[in-house]
Amino acid sequence: MRMDDLTAWGTSLAARFGWRDVVDILIVAIVIYEILKLIRGTRAVQMALGAGLLVGMFYLSSWAHLSTVNWLIRNMVGYVVFALIVLFQTDIRRALAHFGRAPFIRLFTRTDDADEVIEELTVAATMLSGQRIGAIIAVEREIGLRNFIEAGIPLDATLTYDLLVTVFRPGSPLHDGAVIIQGDRVAAAACFLPLTVNPFVGKDFGTRHRAAIGLTEETDAVAIVVSEETGTVSLALGGQIERGLNVDELRARLRELVSAARSAPARPAAGSVYD
């Protein structure tokens, strides 16, 4: 092929390749990448390799004119699809739930999710306070808490008040440390948070309160603390802490901070104190 022909072919290809083709390729690449992330480390990997082998055998049989093998594979495909749906229904549900938590999907559901998160947190704090069970719950906002999550025990579970109460119940292997909430999920438990070194923090604060203050000094997270001694519910934000919140006050503050923070972080209340 002459150089002029190559140049003409390249020009023709560039003319046909537009922005829609770029978007098309990017979408397919992202979908494939997410699927590979989901099946990594699961039994679906072996099934994917088996499916790849069948596809390879199909094209090989077509190229080598192996009519019987080609006919057998073509007739098996339909049954294999149904078998995969039955065998991997749990993995399929997990994959659909994963895509349902994608950022562009949450744009349409974040208000309802925030209300549910606030209600679960409020009920959990109230129950823990009534039973005088010490607890610290950190809610991630704009600044990620991945470093603290990786240092704890990963859960990635649906947020419910039952789960939170169970985690902090005395005798539970996960009660020593903080629970970190990401969106509407319990990301991890038994997470250790940095203690504040602020000399103006009251001496009557325990480790949980100091950890909540320390975390909120470094990030924009909201931390809920339940005192084991008094059952008092406190809320830390921006290195400051509000003590003695009742149910309605806690719900109102969380609605202000968690719901609004998904669009813009809120500042601590004017009445926040260290003592």
**Percent of residues in β-strands:** 5-15%
Can you give the mean pLDDT? 79
The H-level CATH homologous superfamily of the largest domain, spelled out, is: DNA integrity scanning protein, DisA, N-terminal domain
**N-to-C span:** 83 Å
> What percentage of residues falls in helices of 4 or more residues?
55-70%
From N to C, what is the helix and strand string?
HHHHHHEHEHEEHEEEH
Structural class: alpha+beta
Text of the CATH class of the largest domain: Alpha Beta
CATH topology of the largest domain: YojJ-like (1
- Can you name the CATH architecture of the largest domain? 3-Layer(aba) Sandwich
Low-confidence stretches: 262-275
- Number of individual domains: 2
Question: What is the C-alpha radius of gyration, as a whole number of Å?
Answer: 27 Å
- Name the overall outline: elongated
Number of helices: 10
